[in-house]
Sequence to fold (672 residues):
Amino acid sequence: MDSLLTEAFLTSLLFGAVTAGVPLLLAGLGEQVSEKAGVLNIGIEGMMLFGAYAGFVAAYCSGSFALGFVAGGIGGALVAALVVLLCIRYGLNQIVIGIAVTLGMEGLTALLHYFQFSRTYPRLDLAPAWALPLLSDIPVLGRALFTHNPIVYLAVLLVIALGWLFRATYIGLNLEAAGNKPAALDAAGVSVVKTRAFAVLATGFLSGIGGAYMANIGAGLFVPFMTGGAGFIGIVLAMLARGRPVWVLLGAALFGISLAMTTALQVAGINIPTDVVQMLPFAMVMLVLVIFARHSVLPPALGLPYVRGER
Amino acid sequence: MTAEAQQVARRGAPGSAGARDAMASVLRVAVPILLALAVGGIILLVLGKDPLAYYGYVARRGLLTWGGLQETLTRMSPLLLIAAGLIVAFRAGIWNLGGDGQFLLAAVITAALAPALVGTLPKVAILVACMIVSAAVAALWAVIPAVLKARYGINEIITSLMMSFLGISFANVLVKLFFWDPSTTVPQTRTLPVEERLPRLFDTTIHSGVLIALAVVILVHLMMTRTAFGLKLQVVGANPAAAVHAGLNVPWLTIATFTLSAALIGLGGSVEILGVFGTVRADWNPAFGLLVVPLVFLARFNGYAAIAFTLFFSALMIGGDSAARRIGVPQHFVLVLVALLLIFLAVVEYLDHQRRKRIGA
Fold:
């Protein structure tokens, strides 16, 4: 057991936790914006996956990681635009379209990857990392938490920014009204459709970046189906966070640690099937749900299309 | 003309209205399928493949050759049982999307149990016991989402998906840690000898599980449309608040439906092992769960229609499998088709709804 507590083990565990947690954080924050506005965005898995693919191809062709993230965000937003058109503009069933988007993007990205790279999986170079001055000199924590790609710090800043947006701006109020009482928002002269469209596009953009991070930084390559349920975890994080971005951050950290456990344990030379560790985060969510079930609150209008004048 | 007058006018000409309704329901199904195939064809064109050659090959291989047809009919059995499970749940307004976990766990339980029982019981008893135990395990796996939904109103989509991921990993853990046949190098359970599996039909390679699946779908359809229990479930699905006011025990019905749905899906996993594979290898996951969802929607939760669509989809899968090798279009293309089908289905449904609203029906 001594090997579990070495510096190398802790560093690799925490570093891995950040790498695994950031896509979940971005997806969870994105989903939170949608859910606040009353849209149950089941297609987030598909948005992440397309973001991962678009981000990888952009980074692979240009050699620029920054461009990769931009492409990932735009890719995710493009998929979100489809959801906006079908579910927000025309009010089609959000669950049916969400499943369609997820399945479709799974198939489409796998097809595109196959026709582009055949059966090879080209790798990107190692991504640049920013060592934060002073903080990165702390033993263990410095290497693990403060030597990452800039997007990681941006994601954490986003938690604060969203908290402020939800609490102190009209945009935040409009989003909340769109989820709680869309008719009131409509009566106040703000378009429910536009508010929700904005929310879903933001979700797509954020989860697309999350997917690109997974491919370009986490794995360094694109593999079909690589998101493996991360989008669904994002949905759960958003559900449990009750509209508070900080809780998404905590949840993503928890999940990140249990996902990083797999690799960290292998580094420490302990051999258990990876499946056991992969069960941890899901078991944890179910446990949390069973214990705190009463406390996961969703907006009343979640998943319902808004039709003016209908009740 | 007012809506009422229109209705009177239509009642005045029952023959033509009936014909128009029948026509409309054919269109509601045919249009999404054709649109999905057309857009899928455009995608194939963009990727530099000939769509007609692809679809032609899929149809020939999936339906028009004897070997392919047998494979297609065999593939129908797990899909039909999953469809039966989804029909029960969806009609009651419950989104059981945890099918993959329920299916796999049941499959692993069957694969562990059946070879161990060989010799201790008569063959039929073993087959039946495996199906019952596996279905029960699958049902058990749905209890947590069911209770969370019934008691606290927690969205069952999320919880059943979570339980599905858990179930898939847990099935692998079971194979790798507990049921690993020591005589194999790759982790897999002991294999049920071919003569102990579900009997084949006549001289074909089709196993009798297909008949079980057909019978179950029809029974489920009759249960949902002809019995008091089915009617209660439909009321819960159509309007939970009204169901409460009608004095129905909604939480109990929710739990009953959820577990029954999971049990039927689990039966699908069990039958697939007893009929086709005889063993479960680690990391095996056909992921049929989400794929059956659009079929059930296309069928509008009708069991008979579900049988027809399952046949169509099985042929697509079997044909698509060989097309992947022969024409070089990966199997993933089928996922794209399913997605397109779902989207166009929803669009056509929407247009139909708008049309009805316009004519005031």
User: Anything to note?
Assistant: Strands of chain A lie at 130-131, 147-148.
